[in-house]
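Hello Y.,

Per our agreement to keep a running log of every chain we model this quarter, I'm adding this entry. I've kept the format consistent with earlier entries: sequence first, then predicted structure.
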Amino acid sequence: MRGLWLKLSLAFAGVVILSLLVTSLLIGLATAGEFQVYVAQGNRRWAEALAPIFANYYLQNGGWEGVESLQSLSDLMMPGMGPMHRRMGMSDMAMWRMMGHRLILADETGRVRLDSEGTLVGTLLPEAVRNAGVPIRVGNRTVGWLLVGDIGSPSDPSAQFLGQVGRAIGWSTFVGIALALGAGTLVFSRLVRPLQALRQASRRIAAGDFHARIPPQEAGELGEVAQAFNRMAEALAQAEQQRRQMLADIAHELRTPLGIMQGHLEALMDGVLPLELEQIAQIHDEVRHLVRLVEDLRLLTLAEAKQLRLDRELVDLKRLIEESVDGIALQAAEKGIHLEVQLPGELPLVLADPIRLRQVLMNLLTNAVRYTPPGGQVTVKAQVHGDVVRISVRDTGVGIAPEDLPHVFDRFYRVEKSRARSDGGSGLGLAIVKHLVEAHGGRVGVESAPGKGAHFFFTLPFR
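Predicted structure for the entry above:
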């Protein structure tokens, strides 16, 4: 899990640093560009304000000779600033240099006549540079060009401003990266912590410890993952418990008939019992019980694995119910139980496996007769409800306790274990009923109370 934390941290750090650096670069470039445009516009306005003074000088002197001695420049108002008052002993050009600005005057041919820096005097300005300045006009004639701009020195106000902006952006980027990495570390630590708990719990479950759980820590997706894992672990624990219980129940169910068969065979071999047809018939009954138990287990396993094959055809439910009741009638009569059938005039045909449906009905009827005392009654009823047929089997037997109701369809579950075993029940009949009904797209249920009998029902779709 440390590798995951490291990968997430590095990825987050890379994204944050790259994003902030790109953002800082774009902000810096945009700020510098806009500021340069702003300065250029200000310088041009200043040059436009100075142009009439130079034009007047040209008219008075008939040319640019001696223009460097112009004294009125220090009293001009710079846009956004007050007038430049000359300090004692400081020339106009020196004041321009002190303010961090440069003044260049070129004649009509482009030759520099005045430069506050003094380095370009006498040189010829390129046409593109000259045209970027403000023309000085006398009448309809352009007699010169005036340019005002920054000098590009470390004391340049524009350079100082952009330097301060750059430092502010740099510090903001550094602080942003530090804060983002700190917050990311906290977030990733909280993210990895439940994942570590998940890893440890999954390892315990893989080792066979199905009691491993993840303590609930927070809401959101991680909390939902923890809850889902705990539900899965609980389901695995229940499945493991059911598996162990099933193995114990199967061993018990097999041990009883095998023990009886072994005892009879040993008695016959030792001569304790005579080798008669009655003794062989008892052994044969136990063999049939074993065969029935194995077949029930095979059927239940196929149904739970969704691999049970159903030979579906259109089935007349009314006829199937009547034949099933006839099949249990003798057993009910021997106990003095009254069978009652309540069926409508017609029932819709259902697409189902008739052999499996008969098995469902016979299991429910046999279960009802087994738990109904002599003189009781078993009622079979069928009704149409919407797009399903509801078939119910109600008895007047001992009923089922509320704590047993959720488990009546579990494998090997018996409400009265000793009585069910003595009557030949294996505890698989109702589990088989549930899976066969669900394989047909229906649902099964039970309603009961102690001393008031049991009411089993199931539904089958017919549309």
